Amino acid sequence: MKKVLIVEDESLVALEIKSTLRQYGIESCYISDSVEEAIEIAKKCSPDVVLLDIYLAGPKSGIEGCKEFKELGIPVIFLTAYSDEKSMSGALECEPHAYLIKPFRRAELYAAVKMATKHKKGEQEVINICGNILYDPRKNMIIRDNKEIILTGKEKSLLDLLLKNRGRVVQFPTIEYTLWPDEPISESTRRSLIHRLRQKISKECIRTITGIGVILD
Description:
- There is one protein chain.
- The protein has helices spanning 11-23, 35-45, 62-71, 85-92, 106-121, 153-164, 172-179, 187-200, and strands at 3-7, 28-32, 49-53, 76-80, 98-101, 127-130, 133-136, 141-144, 147-150, 170-171, 206-209, 213-216.
- The protein is of the alpha/beta class.
- The chain has two domains: 3-123, Rossmann fold; 152-216, Arc Repressor Mutant, subunit A (Orthogonal Bundle).
- Strand 7 and strand 8 (141-144) form a beta hairpin.
- The two termini are 36 Å apart.
- The model has no long low-confidence stretch (mean pLDDT 86).
């Protein structure tokens, strides 16, 4: 049975989350209102995933707690009412499994927990592209806003290339040679492929550098 640790200093919110998970058959839920206590619970109970509020009343923030939970090998899903650039930037630096903005839908919460627990157990390899956008390379699938989006073969190849070079610009000639090694292709073909992938994932995550190449942030 999946075990979930809820770290939330608003008791009503924590109980609502616990009730939601029970409706989906997840009974083993531990609740804590501080990072310090939650770390001790995690060491004793080994939860499959931690639902972690970013801004807690205790001395340690959720971002600090995220790093400690990851050292224990436990996936973290951030829960927050804040979607401003500063909050998201700080949270994403510690690479949580997902980032849910309150109020979130019940199905969205369950989907994130399900993905995180499968990832921990190695049942499938799911990669966080950015924010709440996930990539399942085994199924050629993007999971965005709780929807499954299938990638074509070329779209998958381009995304895999960008992931291997994450944070670095992949130049257009490299893309063309890697994806079409035996045939010359037109600029419009390459541009169309990049456009489709950005549409399926996010124009904020995948950026085109005019005249140079593409980068996955």
